[in-house]
Sequence to fold (145 residues):
Amino acid sequence: MKCICNTCKRSFEDYEIYIKPGTADPDVGYNGDECCPFCKSDDIEEAVECECCGRAFSYDDCRNFICADCLEKEVTQDKLIACEKAHEDFVKVEIPSYFLWLLGDGNIVSELERVVKDRGTNQDARDYVADDPESFLRYRREVSE
Fold:
């Protein structure tokens, strides 16, 4: 199991944990603190691995298994739209018949894409993926194969 130190931000395996010398208690046995093998801080926790870059992070720094660096680098509106199209993760919506008449059946998706590109931002796409990364990560794995 991977662990991470919240003080020095370095990751290590659980078998590398440093045990600070403690005291021997006849009722409890030996009680020493588990610490980071690098900086000897006791502020350690189980690490999660970023699905994109593979680096280890604390739960707070790796939202839904995508680190902030990868969200910034990897997630754009264009990639998210391509991901949604590839998996047809579309939501069924009711469209007023007047809008259908104005747009024509074939233009709805392209018109929605235009509106998203005009009004949406890459940060909107990052927030969306950070909240629910499943389809984006699936698309990313398929593209890289």
The chain has a mean pLDDT of 80. The first strand starts at residue 2 and ends at 5. Residues 108-119 form the longest helix (12 residues). The helical segments are 68-74, 77-87, 97-103, 108-119, 122-131, 134-144.
